[in-house]
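Dear support,

I submitted the protein below through the web form. The confirmation email said the job was done, but the results page showed an empty box. After a refresh the structure appeared. I'm attaching both so you can tell me whether what I see now is the final result or a partial one.
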Amino acid sequence: MRYIIIVLSLLFGFNSYGQEVKHNSLYKDRADAMFRKIWRHYRVPQYSGLFTENYPSGSAVSLDYFQGAQVNEKAVSFLWPFSGMFSATNVLLRFPDLKKRYSTYLDTLTLGVWAYRDTTRSPVGYQAYPAKLEKADRYYDDNALVCIDYVEAYLNTKDQAYIDKAKEVFKFILSGWDDKLDGGVYWLEGHKDQKPACSNGMSTLAALKLYQCTGDSLYLDWGKRFYDWMQARLRNPQGIYYNDVKMDEKPNKVYYTYNTGSMIEASVMLYRFTKDSKYLKEAAVVAESSFKFFSSNGEGDDRVLKIDLPWFVTVLFRGYEALYEVDHNPRYIQAVADELNQAWKKSSDQYGFLTAKWAKDEGSKRKPKWLLDQACIAELYARLSLLNVK
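What the results page shows now:
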């Protein structure tokens, strides 16, 4: 495989986890630069801590990631793309020399995500659009992302308030669980038509990360329940995860990178918590299967990743990252680094933002850029920097 190996100066320090930090400084600089650029161009001044859905904004952009008809872009972004900024902040906070500045960003984003919190329905949960601006649907996968972001914020700050907020979100997630199809949660509150990998895979991680921070076996038990349900209902024989299962018990045989990525990370976490080698073996099998499935032949022995959405690939990378921290095999993460570096060079528009799916044509470069597509670049480069793979 073609590896992009960059020899750079190393910086040392200790992150908020109490671990020594030795990182790739070029990747760190790219992550920081992208984040600050997003903050400068996407922020909506009249709404504290909130962002536009796209940049440039104001054009008639239809959004297709909702139940039912497409939705037009609004004054601020929906929760899913917002969460990308929360996640990126949590990773950048791990650099000692950036901690002060990103702590301020975290404070602002904590206020921003609070705007999506809906207390008019029980249990309390986070809706897809800020509650003070309009009433909106509440998606279980969105809430799992919020839960994960809160837990990661706790790991960075040790502020108990983040755990309390995460527990509240997890209660909402569990309100979507029922015995139909032997368990699992739905995609959207009030719509009992499917149980998808996005909601259940992210809920698996939310539960396991809550266990990591609290030591409360309740969350480990729920993590295992979600994990086992995903294995029984949505894992195909090769170790790739179907997108969802409908109520007729037929899986929707559509595949996205992030659904598999969340389960690789969950497998590694379960291995760390239980020391049961079956979970590590599963992570290795799914990582290898996903790499073959989501890539194609390149030059020589190279494999070229197929980019569905950059954020989806970021979630897949999180799974590869978790496995790398155990087996120290850089194959998969180097493949993502290769694609990302090519995109950085060839897919940037006039503002320095990257195209959807990292396309290189001029038409794609002229289109408005989605917030989530940019936030995940900051996260990916920050993660790559911290791994400091040689």
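Response: this is the final, complete result; the empty box was a page-load delay. Residues 255 and 364 are 24 Å apart (CA to CA).
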